[in-house]
Amino acid sequence: MYWKSVGAIHTEKTVELASRKAQEYGIKSIVVASVSGKTAELFVGKAENIVCVTHVNGFKDPGVNELTPQQREILIGKNVKVLTTNHVLSGAERGISKKFGGVYPVEIMAGTLRMFGQGVKVSVEVAVMALDAGLIPYGEDIIAVGGTGKGVDTAVVIRPDYSANILNTYIAEIICKP
Q1: How far is it, in rounded angstroms, from Cα 58 to Cα 76?
Q2: Is residue 2 situated within a structural domain?
Q3: Confidence check: pLDDT of 94 > 80
Q4: Whether 39 contacts 66, CB under 8 Å
Q5: SS3 126
Q6: What is the CA radius of gyration of the chain?
Q7: Sequence-ordered list of residues with C-beta below 8 angstroms from that of 10, at least 6 positions apart, any chain
Q8: Residue partners of 60: CB distance under 8 A and separation at least 6
Q9: 51: domain CATH number?
Q10: Residue 165: exposed, middle, or buried by beta-carbon count in 10 A (0-12, 13-18, 19+)?
Q11: 3-state secondary structure string across 46-71
């Protein structure tokens, strides 16, 4: 499914398509980028293993995580695993490029993935982050869901590899994207 626009307007349908594909393929894990946790909540009951990947602490404001403690507790109470950690396709490398200028390999990789859409880049990133954290099994296809701004508009079937082997990550299918 290819959307004619980006953004939250496609969240409900993206959740539906991703959930249906997980069921069709027998995929047990869905990893979803969710800043507020609301999108992750939509996946409750849609797969055995739901992982919510938030923005890193200080993403918007120093010392602040955009996922409220209350929403984090709601997700955990619904058996959603919540991951808040360094973004694998930016992190320290972006700090170096901001300080010294230039572009570095991981930023080039992120830019290349954005050629397929911001949601594809985010989907790859959160899948690798979840694998690095041990929240999804190694060597299995999962569904990864990301977006452009608020909500989600992209879902992929992906077999991520660890960040140390990120170029071995395999995108098997794009379920939907702008």
Answers
A1: 21
A2: no
A3: no
A4: no
A5: helix
A6: 15
A7: 3, 151, 152, 153, 176, 178
A8: 66
A9: 3.40.1380.20
A10: exposed
A11: CCCEEEEECCCCCCCCCCCCCCCHHH
